[in-house]
Write a structure and sequence with these properties.
743 residues, mainly alpha, TPR_TNPO3_IPO13_2nd, TPR_TNPO3_IPO13_4th, Importin_beta-like_NTR, TNPO3 protein
C-alpha cells in the first residue's frame, strides 16, 4: 500500500482520496497492537498520502484532534508525526517544488501543536522508556525539517529533559541513542547561529554539562554511550565552527568545545576519534582560508595534541605479525589519519613536527609498534617538509636505509613507504641514490614487501628521472623479471611507468633500442599466450601484457623537436606486426592484426588502424571500438591534416568513418529491447557523436547518419541507465548549444 501511494498515487481518481485516507486511518487504529513494522509502513502510507493530497488541509491538526485523547493511539500518532517531516524531501514522491514549499509552510504553522502534544505525551509517559524514545524521535524529525521556533524551543521543557536523560548514568542504551540523535538534530538545525541565538545558547551550555557523564561512560566501558557523546560533541563543534575560528575563546567560540573532542581522542578505541574527523578537516580548511598567523597560533597546541593522539591510535597490536593490512577497517582508518594529518600539518609546521617525531625514535628506544606508527605519520608529511637546508631529512633517510633486516616486518614495510615519500630528498642528495635503490631492491625480493618497494621505486623514478637514467638497464632487468616478484597488478604497472619515465630522459638515439627491449618482454608474453590452444587450461587473458604495453607507450614521452623523427615510431610499428590466431581468447577477433603499421606521429590519419577497427566492429559489436573512435576524434579531429583521413573516408574511400561504425550499431539497437540490453553501446555511441559535435560539428550534420542518431537519442532519453542516459543528454545539450553559439 505504501509503495502504491508513493509511486502511483496520480492514477487514483480525486474523489476516492478521502475514502482511502479514512480507510488507512481505520487500519492503523485497528492494527496498532500488531508488529511495529506494519504500523511504520501504514504511517508512511498515511504521510505520503497527506503530502500528495492537496485537498487534505491541516493534516497535523486533524490527526492530533482525532487521536491525542486516546492513550492507546498515541504510539501510532507519534509514528505518523515522525515520518511526516522525513517524507517531505523523499525522492520517491512525485511532488513539485511549489507543493513542497506549501507543505513545509503548513507544517511550520502547526509545529507548536506538535510540541504541545509531545509535552502532553511526556507527562503521560512517566518512566515509559518506549514512549520517551518515540517522543525524542518525533522531536528530532521536526528539528531536521527546520520548522521549529528556536525561541520557543529554547525555553521548552523538552530540551531540559533531553539533557537530563543524557546526564543520567542509569539511562538505557536505546533511550540514550534516541536522546543523542535528537540533540544532534537540534544542533544541525541551528547551523545559522545568529538567527537562532536563544536555542544555540541553551544547546551550547547543555552539551558542555555532559563531560562528566562521558567520563562515567568511559569508566563503565560503555562504548555505545561513549560514541553517542562523541557524536554530540562533534556536532556541537560543527555548528559553532565559524564562532570557534572567528572569535576563539570568546562566547560561543569557547575552546572548551575542542577540549571535549580531544578528550574523546584520548579514548583507547580508534572508532571514537574517527567520528570527529570531518570537523577537524573543516577546521583546517577554515583556518587555511583565514590565513591569520595570530589565530593559527591559538590552534597550534590543539592540533599538536590531536596529532599525538592519532599517532598513538595508528599503532598496530604488539603481537601483530607481517605487514600492516591496508584493506581492513583499521587499515582504512590509518589511511584517513594520513589524509587528515596532511590537511592539518600547516598549522603545526611540517619541519618542526617531522623533527619532533624523529626525535622520539632517536632519543628513546621505543617498542616496534611505536616506531612503526611514528614512521607512518612521518611518511604522511614527508612531502610537505621544506627541503632547503634540512639536515633532519638527510639524517632520517640515512637512518632508514641502514635499518637492519632483523627489525619487525611492519617497520620495514612502513620505512619503505617513507623512503618512497622522500624521493625529493633523494633528488637533492643524489649520493643517496645507490644506497636507497639497494635498500628498495632488498624489499622487492621479499614477497611481503615487494609491492611497497615497487611503489617506492616508481616514486623515485618519477622524481629523480635524470639521476635514474644511469640506472635504466637495472630497471630493464627488473622489468624482464617482473613476474618473478610477488607484485600486485598496480605495483607492477607502476614500476613500468617509472621505467618509461626514466626512458624518456635518455638520449634520443638510445630511446628506440631501449624502448624495443622494454616492449619485447610484453610482446613475448603475448606471443606465448597466442601460441596456446584456447582449451589447454592455461590463462589466455591478454590484458596483463596489454596494460603493461599501454603504460609504457603512455609515459615514454621524449622531447622531440619539429622535423625530428619520433624515436618511438619504429618500435610501435614493430610491436603492431603480430597476428591473433582464429578462435583465440577474445571472441571473434581472428586473424585481423597482421601487418598493420601505425604512424605514431599521427600527422596523416590515413590509418590502417581505422580500417581494422571498422572491419572488426562489423563482425563483433564490442562497444569499446566506439569508445576508441571517440578518442581518435577527440585527439585528431581539430587537426587539418587528420580530418580527411579520420573524419571523411576510410582508406579504401568506400564509406564515411562514422557511418561505418553507426550502421552495425543501429542494427544491434534495433533488436528487441536493444537499448535496454546494450547500455554500454548507447553510452559509447553518443560519446562518439558528442566528440564530433565538439570537434567537427559540420561533418556530423552533413552525414547521412545524423537523422538516425537524433532519432536514437530521442528514443534513449527514457533509458534507465545512469551512464548511458548521461551520454545521450550531453550529446543533445552539446548539439543545441553548438547551434545557438556557432553561426
Amino acid at each position: 500500500m505504501k509503495m502504491k501511494i508513493q509511486t502511483s498515487f496520480y492514477e487514483l481518481p480525486t474523489d476516492s482520496h478521502v475514502s482511502l485516507r479514512d480507510s488507512l486511518l481505520s487500519h492503523i487504529q485497528n492494527l496498532k497492537d500488531l508488529s511495529p513494522v506494519i504500523v511504520t509502513q501504514l504511517a508512511l502510507a498515511i504521510a505520503d498520502l497527506a503530502l500528495q493530497m492537496a485537498s487534505w488541509k491541516g493534516c497535523v491538526q486533524t490527526l492530533v484532534e482525532k487521536y491525542s485523547n486516546d492513550v492507546t493511539s498515541l504510539p501510532f500518532l507519534l509514528e505518523i508525526l515522525t515520518v511526516l517531516p522525513e517524507e517531505v524531501h523523499s525522492r520517491s514522491l512525485r511532488i513539485g517544488a511549489n507543493r513542497r514549499t506549501e507543505i513545509i509552510e503548513d507544517l511550520a504553522y502547526y509545529s507548536s501543536t506538535v510540541i504541545s502534544l509531545l509535552m502532553t505525551c511526556v507527562e503521560k509517559a512517566g518512566n515509559d522508556e518506549k514512549m520517551l524514545i518515540k517522543i525524542f524521535r518525533c522531536l528530532g524529525s521536526w528539528f531536521n525539517l527546520g520548522v521549529l521556533d528556536s525561541t520557543f524551543m529554547a525555553n521548552s521543557k523538552l530540551l531540559s529533559l533531553l539533557f537530563e536523560v543524557l546526564q543520567q548514568d542509569k539511562t538505557s542504551s536505546n533511550l540514550h541513542e534516541a536522546a543523542s540523535d535528537c540533540v544532534c538534530s537540534a544542533l544541525y538545525a541551528i547551523e545559522n547561529v545568529e538567527t537562532n541565538l536563544p536555542l544555540a545558547l541553551q544547546l551550547f551550555q547543555g552539551v558542555l554539562t555532559l563531560e562528566s557523564a562521558y567520563h562515567m561512560a568511559v569508566a563503565r566501558e560503555d562504548l555505545d554511550k561513549v560514541l553517542n557523546y562523541c557524536r554530540v560533541f562533534t556536532e556541537l563543534c560543527e555548528t559553532f565552527l565559524d564562532k570557534i575560528v572567528c572569535t576563539p575563546g570568546q562566547g560561543l567560540g569557547d575552546l572548551r568545545t575542542l577540549e571535549l573532542l580531544l578528550i574523546c581522542a584520548g579514548h583507547p578505541q580508534y572508532e571514537v576519534v574517527e567520528i570527529s574527523f570531518n570537523f577537524w578537516y573543516r577546521l583546517g580548511e577554515h583556518l587555511y582560508k583565514t590565513d591569520d598567523a595570530v589565530i593559527h597560533s591559538i590552534f597550534k597546541a590543539y592540533i599538536q595534541r590531536l596529532l599525538h593522539a592519532l599517532a598513538r591510535h595508528c599503532q598496530l597490536d604488539s603481537d601483530h605479525e607481517g605487514v600492516p593490512e591496508e584493506t581492513d577497517d583499521f587499515g582504512e582508518f590509518r589511511m584517513r589519519v594520513s589524509d587528515l594529518v596532511k590537511d592539518l600539518i600547516f598549522l603545526v609546521g611540517s619541519v618542526e613536527c617531522f623533527a619532533q617525531l624523529y626525535a622520539t625514535l632517536k632519543d628513546g628506544n621505543p617498542p616496534w609498534e611505536v616506531t612503526e606508527a611514528v614512521l607512518f605519520i612521518m611518511a604522511s608529511i614527508a612531502k610537505s617538509v621544506d627541503q632547503e637546508n634540512n639536515p633532519t631529512l638527510v639524517e632520517v633517510l640515512e637512518g632508514v636505509v641502514h635499518l637492519p633486516e632483523t627489525v619487525h616486518t611492519a617497520v620495514r614495510y612502513t620505512s619503505i613507504e617513507l623512503v618512497g615519500e622522500m624521493s625529493e630528498v633523494v633528488d637533492r642528495n643524489p649520493q643517496f641514490l645507490d644506497p636507497v635503490l639497494g635498500y628498495l631492491m632488498k624489499g622487492l625480493c621479499d614477497q611481503r614487501l615487494a609491492s611497497a618497494a615497487a611503489k617506492a621505486i616508481h616514486n623515485i623514478c618519477s622524481v629523480c628521472r635524470d639521476h635514474m637514467a644511469q640506472h635504466f638497464h637495472g630497471l630493464l632487468e627488473i622489468a624482464r623479471a617482473l613476474d618473478s616478484f610477488t607484485l600486485s597488478p598496480e605495483a607492477a604497472v607502476g614500476l613500468l611507468k617509472g621505467t618509461a619515465l626514466v626512458l624518456a630522459r635518455l638520449p634520443l638515439e638510445k630511446i628506440a633500442e631501449c624502448l624495443s627491449e622494454l616492449c619485447a618482454v610484453q610482446v613475448m608474453a603475448l606471443k606465448k599466450l597466442l601460441s596456446q590452444e584456447p582449451s589447454n587450461g592455461l590463462s589466455s587473458d591478454p590484458t596483463v601484457p596489454l596494460d603493461r604495453l599501454a603504460v609504457i607507450f603512455r609515459h615514454t614521452n621524449p622531447i622531440v623537436e619539429n622535423g625530428q623523427v619520433h624515436p618511438c615510431q619504429k618500435v610501435i610499428q614493430e610491436v603492431s606486426e603480430w597476428r591473433l590466431p582464429r578462435g583465440w581468447g577474445l571472441p571473434g577477433v581472428g586473424g585481423g592484426l597482421s601487418q598493420n603499421s601505425i604512424d605514431l606521429s599521427l600527422r596523416k590519419v590515413n590509418l590502417p588502424l581505422i580500417d581494422l577497427m571498422v572491419n572488426v566492429y562489423r563482425a563483433h559489436q564490442h562497444s569499446c571500438f566506439l569508445y576508441l573512435g571517440s578518442i581518435l576524434v577527440d585527439e585528431y579531429g581539430m587537426e587539418e591534416g587528420c580530418r580527411q583521413g579520420l573524419l571523411d573516408m576510410l582508406a579504401d574511400g568506400s564509406v564515411a568513418f562514422l557511418q561505418a561504425l553507426c550502421i552495425p550499431t543501429f542494427q544491434l539497437l534495433e533488436q528487441p529491447n536493444g537499448l535496454q540490453n546494450h547500455p554500454d553501446t548507447v553510452d559509447d555511441l553518443f560519446r562518439l557523436a558528442a566528440r564530433f559535435i565538439q570537434r567537427s560539428p559540420v561533418t556530423l550534420l552533413r552525414s547521412q547518419v545524423m537523422i538516425p542518431i537524433l532519432q536514437w537519442a530521442i528514443a534513449a532519453t527514457t533509458l534507465d541507465h545512469r551512464d548511458a542516459n548521461c551520454s545521450v543528454m550531453k550529446f543533445l545539450r552539446d548539439l543545441i548549444h553548438t547551434g545557438v553559439a556557432n553561426d
